[in-house]
Amino acid sequence: MIDTKLNEAMQESRTIRHPVTEFQLPFVDPSGHKSPAHGYVGDWNIQTDLGRKIIWRNGGIDGYSSLIAFNPDKKTGVAMLCSCYFSDVPPIEIINTALTFLLYH
Length: 105
Hints:
The chain is an alpha+beta fold. It has one domain. The protein has two helices and eight strands; from the N terminus they run αββββββββα. It has helices at about 5-15, 90-105, and strands spanning about 20, 25-30, 35, 40, 45-50, 55-60, 65-70, 75-80. A six-stranded antiparallel beta sheet has the order 1-4-5-6-7-8, covered by helices on one side. The protein has a two-stranded antiparallel ribbon with strand order 2-3. A hairpin with a 4-residue loop joins strand 7 (about 65-70) and strand 8. The longest helix has 14 residues, at about 90-105.
């Protein structure tokens, strides 16, 4: 994050509001080890294992899926766009791909 007049608003958008059980996705490292994760919602979705954090948002409509995510500690982000239906590539697969990339690459 760069220093701008929007800093306060940007920080507020990443503030945790409440836990979401559907987002309790474990972080899976390349060797297959799973660490427990906790999912939260603010304006963005937040995955954490209480040591690492990924902030993300996804969506889709009529044959298109998208996800944007970033790892604030590594200052790395990824945007994924897919011309596919949820039945072709479930959103959880897109999310897991992004989480793995942002944590371990």
